[in-house]
Amino acid sequence: xxxxxxxxxxxxxxxxxxxxxxxxxAVTARKIDVxxxxxxxxxxxxxxxxxxxxxxxxxxxxxxxxxxxxxxxxIPVGSDLEIYLTSQDVxxxxxxxxxxxxxxxxxGAIGKQTIHFxxxxxxxxxxxxxxxxxxxxxxxxxxxxYPVK
Length: 149
Ligand code: CUA
Hints:
Layout: H1 3-28, E1 36-38, E2 48-53, E3 56-64, E4 67-69, E5 72-76, E6 79-87, E7 92-96, E8 101-105, E9 110-117, E10 121-126, E11 139-145
The structure holds dinuclear copper ion.
């Protein structure tokens, strides 16, 4: 085998190892929730938000031409929002402003990611995947408020 070829293979192997170790570090030590794909279930056809416990909510989001359901979500400050995302028609994007969330809404599949909201505010969700003539109007909001006492 050529020496250059060996070096390139060693460099590729090293980069792959660095990538896998970084991913493992993010998931275990930093507890960063890496986007996942859960098995498609016919049970999730209704867009809704459910409270699981005092600071955990499940948000079932449906993307479709050209909007997201639910179009507004209210959760208290300090909540974890477990997002389940699917699409009713074509592939859409799902970007949450100020959170660095970048998911894809794919018909026939459910994406899942958990996001912690420690600061109050209005977090816009926008579609960032061109999906047709109404693409630029596709948005929704997560409103994070202090709980009413
Ligand atoms: Cu949906 Cu762009």
